[in-house]
Each structure stands twice: as C-alpha cells, then as structure tokens.
Write a structure and sequence with these properties.
Helix content is 50%, strand content 18%. It is α+β, with helices and mostly antiparallel strands and 147 residues long. α2 crosses α3. The longest helix is centred in the middle third of the chain and has 25 residues.
C-alpha cells in the first residue's frame, strides 16, 4: 500500500457515493481547495483530519496514516499537461507568466510568491453570457535576502 492507493480509494468512494469536495471540507474544517488537494495526495493531514477523511471514505487506520505522510508534490504526469482544463492553466502561465512576474516585481521588489504560505478560492460567478470561473490565488511575498 502507498499514498497513491489511498488517493485512488478516496476517488472511487467519492464517485460511488456521490460525495462533494465541499461537503468533505466542511467536515474536515478546512477550505474545499485545501481539502481537495489533501484527498488527491498533495497535502499532509493532521491525525484529526485524517480520521475525519477516513470516516467519510471508509479508510482503514493504516490508510489514514498515509494521509499524514508528507507527499511527493506535483501531480501532473507529463511536463506539458494534456488534460484540457489543466492545459489552459499552463497556457495562462505561458502567455501571462512574464506579465505576472513583472508586475509582482514592480509592486513588491525582487522575490517570489509563496505556494507554501498560500490560499486559493474558486467560485462560480454568474454571468448572462455564461458563468465564469473566479479563481483567487493569495501567496505571501518572500523577498530575496542579501548576504
């Protein structure tokens, strides 16, 4: 058994039972974005969070322990993603990445936006021309140190 086996069991159970990530997140007590990343194998659960996820998805004690292991991060199977939705994010970074970098540096200076001290919010935004996906990414700015 490994973390991937646990992730596959979670996904299978989610589909079979018609569980929503938002409902899981409410029970876990975290955002739907973080909780989904946890269940997909990209975050580390506390013992209490693993127990809640375990109850929802029928995980054994051993499977719950795998949720508490720091995962190898990065979930894409290829350097250039082939899934159309994920590819569009790749396209956004390819087209606007230098613009984002330039504007962050102009506003904050030389540094990076943290993906560790980070939050994300994904919401549906009603629009008469067709609903829109509203994504807010918020990461702490980390300046490069001089030494």
């Amino acid at each position: 058994m490994n973390r991937l086996d646990v992730t596959e069991k979670i996904i299978s159970t989610k589909v079979a039972k018609g569980i929503s990530w938002a409902d899981v997140a409410k029970k876990v007590g975290q955002s739907k974005e973080w909780t989904t990343a946890l269940c997909l194998g990209q975050m580390t659960a506390s013992a209490a969070e693993a127990k809640v996820v375990g109850k929802i998805f029928g995980l054994t004690t051993e499977e719950q322990k795998w949720l508490q292991v720091v995962p190898y991060k990065g979930s894409l199977p290829t350097p250039v993603p082939t899934d159309p939705l994920i590819y569009r994010w790749y396209e956004i970074v390819s087209v606007y990445g230098t613009t984002i970098k330039e504007l962050i540096h102009e506003e904050f200076g030389d540094g990076i936006m943290s993906a560790i001290d980070f939050s994300m919010d994904i919401q549906r935004q009603a629009d008469p021309k067709g609903d829109r996906v509203n994504v807010v990414l918020s990461g702490k700015f980390l300046p490069y140190k001089q030494y």
